């Protein structure tokens, strides 16, 4: 029966386990529960980690936003690691506002004043007056100009969670412009040079209309002075052509300066040179013009334009090999004191990407002003260089001023946002541009901006994946408008790791005892050293290769083959029993034991704590208690009748079991009552006492000899003589009736007093019947029989006599009636016949 109960309980428990797994299956969509480490957990959106060392729940990684079922253990607040995205703004200077009513100097383009460019005097005068104006301070120009806000923020982001920041861009009024004119001075460009020298002051004048803070610089290039680009014959080296100077790679003529008058002079003074092949060494020149910041004089805060004008294509990385130059371009500045590129004959041309990088880094807008025959090549090139644009130059560069103006207008009236984040971070730009009522569009470009317009960008930043290297998790990201040396710098920290996974934390312990000394305790879990495994690193690899994975988890004689009795998980050949809350414990090598499935008494396990405890299906009783459910009191005190001193246990008619009487039950006697004191069906002892009562009371019976009576009746108390014997029911008195050999009746009762002593009360005198005369009766009866017989005989005689006489009388009468005489035979018939005539009416 015990076994059956256990089986039933076990099967119930198994069902319960199956049921308990159902919610887990439901939460299969919950991305958190499958995450085994704090890192993985917090790299999953909406998950939080519990590093409570005492935590006993099933999954440490949980969704704090989802309420747990009440059964599940809740993680304590102080042990929950759920980092938030944090943004703090470090620098947020206000955007520079446009000066309202700032006159014609602003964004309005108008080319007037055409006749005055050639008057060099007036040029000088203008330059001076402009310088003066600049010194006196012109509105915002004296201050630090801010076109991007905020400027620096600190961001802590969790992986795979998009975070939005907002950024404003405005085009400041009167923003400084640096323009460096880089010119191909090979022989074919001589007419262009002439034209440019003539147009120089017009260019300056035009630009000054755009911005009062304008500088102009000039440089030129030919090609590497190496065969096959340039003829290296001595005479050709000195004078490659008529009116030519010796060839050179790149020559920086004039640093960026507000003195625009000097520009024309410098252009005029520059002499053309000659080379052999068609493509020119323009890339060398671009690289030097871009990277030689100090020599060129690029200002920190200015729109930087590099106008590259040529009528030929270009050499690029690899072409240097033709001239035996194998050393790649290092992208650094190598300008001599005289302004020549000193590494021209030693380093190869830069690649397009090198140019792009340098241009990007220095926020320079390259404008390729090229003649029609090469424009296609440069259009392709411009696609690969950030912020570059191409414009068609007339053969003699006569349209250079409009070209630059248009390009500048294009550049400054649009904004394009860029960033330099690595691939681990995704950055997306959304903006309405100038359409306040419009929808947010996923774009980083806006056009048609006028001075003073503010463009707002919404920037979604998302850490796509956590880099493996810890140092890669800190990134400085720049978000900048192309061509402007202003940016929003984001110091990004990716929250990829928990503090408790780093050495030095309170919850980080190497070779921790909690991990059997074979692993590192991190954030509440063990990370095992190589060769060890198991939840607490309790298994070692050598040990387990001997056993198959689950062999230790199935009991050897199991018929079901159920691992860990279905109430635990098999971990390296050992069972780890599931936990069932604080009150229920499952244990045993195969989780076959528990402390909640034992026999119950009145609904209490093992009759309650005070009686015993449950251990693996059996109750372990406390001293003083026994029985399968510890409900039995071992003391026999309760089996003694309370009002009998020195009485027998269970009145001598039963045994004491669990502190209670179990009464004897035999065929002829059934005892009952709390102390087995009652027996309604018991045979009485009347017979037993009869002889003694007889001899003691009446000196009769088989023991009537005085000796026999005294010897054989010692057990029987001397009866108390009473007149009339009556049994008193309450005292359990027994009434006995007998008739002795004298036909006398006698009656007595016996009973036990409260001390179980036998007492007998007997009738003082027997009731005897009166004497009867037996012989008289006998003779009387005999006489009666004889008399009756005789009477019957007489009666018979009388009757027959009467009958005879009647017959005789009848005979006599008949005889007397006979007609014929005596002697006449009645049967005699005469021999004669007589007939009567019927018609004869005579006497018959
Ligand atoms: C040249 O500029 C002066 C003022 O600087 C102006 O008076 C004159 O008319 C201009 N000449 C022409 C041809 O426009
Ligand atoms: C021009 O701009 C620079 C900053 O790029 C500034 O330092 C300088 O004062 C400005 N000059 C004038 C004349 O506004
Ligand atoms: C350019 O050539 C002219 C004569 O043709 C000469 O006077 C001048 O010095 C040369 N300039 C340079 C920079 O060599
Ligand atoms: C851009 O401006 C910052 C200061 O605002 C300066 O440190 C940096 O050198 C500038 N970069 C370039 C390429 O001019
Ligand atoms: C972006 O540019 C800034 C400034 O040049 C630099 O410090 C940062 O490391 C760059 N970021 C990346 C991801 O390359
Ligand atoms: C602004 O956006 C709205 C809605 O997208 C559109 O209807 C409207 O034409 C846009 N206006 C301009 C000037 O683009
Ligand atoms: C397993 O079964 C074998 C015989 O089949 C028996 O000798 C052994 O005692 C059993 N072991 C257990 C733990 O029941
Ligand atoms: C079962 O064991 C657990 C842990 O030892 C204990 O807290 C609990 O009280 C026990 N339950 C019963 C019913 O004895
Ligand atoms: C009386 O007791 C004696 C001895 O105990 C025994 O021998 C005898 O038979 C008894 N008498 C009767 C009538 O039972």
Describe what you observe in this structure.
With 844 residues, the chain is α+β, with helices and mostly antiparallel strands. Strand 11 (303-310), helix 9 and strand 12 form a beta-alpha-beta unit. It is elongated, with a radius of gyration of 69 Å. The model is unreliable at 4-28 and 100-142 (pLDDT under 50). Residues 556-557 line the site of one 2-acetamido-2-deoxy-beta-D-glucopyranose (NAG).
Features:
single chain; 844 residues; alpha+beta; Immunoglobulin-like; 6 domains; 6-stranded mixed β-sheet; 22% strand; elongated; binds 2-acetamido-2-deoxy-beta-D-glucopyranose; phosphoprotein; glycoprotein; transmembrane helix; signal
CATH superfamily of the largest domain: von Willebrand factor, type A domain
In terms of structural class, how would the helical and strand content be classed?
A: alpha+beta
What hetero molecules are in the model? 2-acetamido-2-deoxy-beta-D-glucopyranose
The average pLDDT score comes to 80
CATH architecture group name of the largest domain = 3-Layer(aba) Sandwich
What is the total number of structural domains? 6
Number of helices: 15
Q: What percentage of amino acids are in beta strands? A: 15-25%
Which strands sit side by side, in order, in the main sheet?
4-6-19-18-14-16
* Morphology: elongated
Gyration radius from CA atoms, angstroms: 69 Å
Domain Integrin beta subunit VWA: 37-498
Domain Integrin beta subunit cytoplasmic: 797-843
Signal peptide: 1-20
Family: Belongs to the integrin beta chain family.
């Amino acid at each position: 029966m015990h076994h059956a109960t256990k089986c039933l309980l076990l099967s119930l428990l198994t069902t319960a386990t199956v049921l308990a797994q159902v919610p887990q299956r439901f939460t299969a969509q919950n991305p958190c529960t499958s995450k085994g480490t704090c890192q993985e957990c917090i790299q999953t959106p909406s998950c939080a980690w519990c590093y409570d060392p005492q935590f006993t729940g099933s999954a440490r990684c949980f969704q704090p936003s989802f309420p747990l079922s009440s059964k599940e253990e809740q993680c304590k607040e102080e042990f929950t690691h759920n980092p938030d995205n944090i943004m703090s703004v470090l620098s947020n200077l206000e955007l520079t506002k446009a000066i309202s009513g700032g006159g014609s100097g602003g964004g309005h383009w108008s080319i007037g004043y055409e006749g005055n460019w050639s008057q060099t005097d007036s040029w000088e005068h203008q330059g001076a007056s402009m310088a003066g104006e600049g010194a006196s301070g012109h509105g915002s120009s004296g201050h630090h100009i801010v076109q991007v806000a905020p400027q620096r923020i600190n961001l802590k982001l969790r992986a795979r969670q998009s975070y939005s920041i907002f950024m404003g861009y405005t085009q400041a009024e009167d923003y400084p412009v640096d323009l460096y004119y880089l010119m191909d001075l090979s022989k074919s460009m001589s007419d262009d040079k002439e034209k440019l020298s003539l147009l120089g002051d017009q260019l300056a004048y035009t630009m000054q209309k755009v911005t009062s803070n304008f500088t102009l610089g000039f440089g030129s290039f030919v090609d590497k002075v190496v065969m096959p680009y340039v003829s290296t014959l001595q005479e050709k080296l000195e004078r490659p052509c008529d009116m030519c100077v010796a060839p050179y790679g790149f020559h920086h003529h004039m640093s960026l300066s507000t003195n625009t008058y000097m520009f024309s002079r410098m252009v005029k003074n520059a002499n053309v040179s000659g080379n052999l092949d068609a493509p020119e060494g323009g890339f060398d020149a671009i690289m030097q013009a871009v990277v030689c910041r100090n020599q060129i004089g690029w200002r920190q805060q200015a729109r930087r334009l590099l106008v590259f004008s040529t009528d030929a294509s270009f050499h690029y990385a690899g072409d240097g090999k033709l001239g035996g130059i194998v050393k790649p371009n290092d992208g650094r500045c190598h300008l001599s004191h005289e302004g020549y590129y000193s590494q021209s004959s030693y380093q190869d041309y830069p690649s397009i990407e090198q140019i792009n990088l340098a241009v990007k880094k220095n926020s320079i807008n390259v404008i390729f002003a090229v003649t029609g025959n090469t424009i296609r090549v440069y259009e392709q090139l411009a696609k690969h260089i950030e912020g570059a644009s191409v414009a068609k130059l007339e053969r003699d560069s006569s349209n250079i001023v409009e070209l630059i103006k248009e390009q500048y207008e294009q550049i400054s009236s649009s904004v394009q946002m860029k960033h330099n984040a690595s691939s681990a971070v995704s950055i997306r730009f959304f903006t309405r541009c100038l359409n306040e009522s419009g929808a947010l569009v996923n774009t980083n470009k806006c056009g048609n901006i006028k001075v003073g317009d503010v463009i707002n960008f919404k920037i979604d930043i998302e850490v796509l994946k956590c880099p493996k290297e810890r140092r890669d998790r800190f990134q400085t990201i720049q978000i900048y408008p192309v061509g402007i040396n202003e940016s929003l710098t984001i110091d990004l920290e990716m929250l990829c790791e928990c503090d408790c996974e780093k050495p030095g934390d309170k919850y980080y312990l190497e070779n921790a005892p909690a991990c059997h000394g074979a692993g590192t305790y991190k954030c509440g879990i063990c990370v095992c050293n190589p060769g060890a495994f198991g939840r607490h690193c309790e298994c070692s690899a050598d040990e387990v290769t001997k056993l198959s994975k689950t062999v230790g988890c199935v009991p050897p004689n199991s018929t079901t083959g159920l691992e860990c009795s279905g109430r635990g998980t098999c971990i390296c050949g050992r069972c780890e029993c599931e936990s069932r809350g604080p009150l229920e414990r499952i244990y045993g090598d195969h989780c076959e034991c528990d402390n909640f499935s034992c026999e119950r008494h009145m609904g209490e396990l093992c009759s309650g704590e005070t009686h015993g405890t449950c251990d693996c299906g059996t109750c372990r009783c406390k001293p003083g208690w026994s029985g399968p459910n510890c409900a039995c009191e071992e003391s026999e005190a309760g089996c003694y009748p309370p009002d009998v001193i020195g009485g027998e246990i269970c009145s001598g008619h039963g045994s004491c079991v669990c502190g209670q009487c179990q009464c004897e039950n035999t065929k002829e006697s059934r005892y009952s009552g709390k102390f087995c004191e009652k027996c309604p069906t018991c045979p009485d002892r009347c017979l037993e006492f009869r002889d003694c009562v007889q001899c003691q009371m009446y000196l009769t019976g088989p023991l009537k000899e005085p000796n026999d009576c005294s010897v054989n009746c010692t057990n029987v108390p001397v009866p108390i003589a009473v007149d009339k014997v009556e049994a008193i029911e309450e005292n359990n008195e027994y009434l006995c009736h007998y008739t002795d050999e004298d036909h006398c009746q006698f009656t007595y009762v016996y009973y036990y007093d409260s001390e179980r002593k036998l007492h007998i009360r007997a009738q003082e005198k027997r009731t005897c019947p009166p004497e009867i005369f037996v012989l008289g009766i006998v003779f009387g009866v005999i006489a009666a029989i004889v008399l009756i017989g005789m009477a019957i005989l007489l009666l018979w005689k009388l009757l027959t006599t009467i009958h005879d006489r009647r017959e005789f009388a009848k005979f006599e009468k008949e005889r007397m009636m006979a007609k014929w005489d005596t002697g006449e035979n009645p049967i005699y018939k005469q021999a004669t016949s007589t007939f009567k005539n019927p018609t004869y009416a005579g006497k018959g």
